[in-house]
Design brief:
Elements lengths: L1 E5 L4 H12 L3 E6 L13 E4 L5 H10 L4 E4 L6 H6 L1 H21 L4 E7 L22 H20 L2 E7 L1 E3 L17 H10 L5 E4 L11 E2 L1 E3 H16 L6 E6 L5 E2 H13 L7 E4 L8 E2 L4 H7 L8 H15 L4
Helix pairs in contact: 1-7, 2-4, 4-5, 6-8, 6-10, 8-10
The structure holds uridine-5'-diphosphate (UDP).
The site of uridine-5'-diphosphate has 14 residues, from α6 and β8.
Length: 331
């Protein structure tokens, strides 16, 4: 297949591109490099451009005939979305509409969309399945939910088949060590802890120890990037093979929650083998953090025939640690 991966220079997109190329697909990456890195595009052909540029999109779709599109390009910081909602609605919603419209014009019928657990808002029960009400509490989640809604209407009106994959906490790194997580600024727990362990940061601060959980710290569902990507590949196969059509949506997670303290404990264990340790501090709660966010991914497993391969937290941390050691030149 010829696949367009939008946002293929980012953390998740770059791992996806590698997996698709290794599976024999022809991959074009479209990325504006606003948060992605050219160095992460080690597979596939990179086109530098922005989804706001409708002419560029039109030319690209005229030149290449894509069998499917995977869309990872988005702004994804909850806090920033509260302060700059316009950025989020414009990039995540309006620019995605440009992409969908060019697909419709060029009769490209298969679309895989990065959605998020943030579309659910405050959890009403746990683990969260697909029937859970979607009531986002920030513009980031709202912008993603809007696209989910658009996709339903585009499926019925234009026959555009799509799969929305709602991620919980994507983490880990390429098991072969070629790719990994790099955000600037970094806000995610696992890379931050690892940076504290490798000496890039002085310490890690736990955001609150007074939650209603066993050890008082927040519980999240950490899913290995490789498992996340394999679900995308299966989702594309599902709609390209016509086994299913319409606007589909699945939650992607491990189905198992780990507390911030448990993650720190596993990191301590992994990094101690390299003689490293870290300083842990306790801070106040970060606003908007629910106590527990865990996915019920039964539907994804059943429908996509998906089996997470790296569900074990220690494996996730080992892969991420290998990447941190390699990308930290001071190490
Ligand atoms: N967290 C923390 N310290 C940090 C960063 C994150 O204690 O420096 C906590 C955060 O409050 C949340 C969990 O780690 O409970 C995962 O946060 P992250 O930002 O990685 O992902 P999110 O769950 O917000 O998508």
């Amino acid at each position: 297949m010829k696949v367009l991966v939008v946002g293929g220079a980012g953390y998740i997109g770059s791992h996806m591109v590698k997996m698709l190329v290794k599976a024999g697909h022809d991959v074009v990456v479209l990325d504006n490099l606003s948060t992605g890195f050219r160095e992460l595009v080690q597979y596939g052909r990179l086109v530098i451009g922005d989804l706001a540029d409708v002419h560029l999109l039109e030319n690209l779709f005229q030149q290449e005939s894509f069998d499917g599109v995977m869309h990872f390009a988005a702004n994804s910081l909850v806090g920033e979305s509260m302060v700059h909602p316009s950025k989020y609605y414009r990039n995540n919603m309006s620019n995605t509409l440009n992409l969908l419209d060019v697909m419709v014009r060029h009769n490209v019928k298969h679309f895989i969309f990065s959605s998020t657990a943030a579309t659910f808002g405050e959890p009403e029960y746990s683990p969260i399945d697909e029937k859970h009400p979607q009531v986002p509490i920030n513009p980031y989640g709202a912008s993603k939910l809007m696209v989910e809604r658009v996709l339903q209407d585009y499926a019925s009106a234009y026959g555009l088949n799509s799969v929305c994959l709602r991620y919980f906490n994507a983490c880990g790194a390429d098991p072969e060590g070629e790719l990994g997580e790099c955000h600037d600024p970094e806000t995610h727990l696992i890379p931050l802890i690892l940076q504290a362990a490798s000496g890039r940061r002085e310490s890690i601060t736990v955001f609150g120890r007074d939650y209603d959980t066993e050890d008082g710290t927040c519980i999240r569902d950490y899913i290995h990037i490789q498992d996340l990507c394999s679900a995308h590949a299966l989702a594309l196969e599902l709609i390209v093979s016509d086994k299913k059509s319409g606007a589909l949506a699945y939650n992607l997670g491990n189905g198992q929650g780990f507390s911030v303290q448990q993650v720190i404990d596993v990191v301590q264990k992994v990094v101690s083998k390299d003689g490293c340790s870290l300083v842990v501090e306790t801070g106040v709660r970060r606003s908007g953090d629910p106590a527990v966010l865990v996915a019920d991914a039964t539907l994804a497993k059943d429908v996509l025939n998906w089996t997470p391969e790296y569900a074990d937290l220690e494996t996730i941390i080992r892969h991420a640690w290998a990447w941190e050691k390699q990308s930290n030149t001071e190490f």
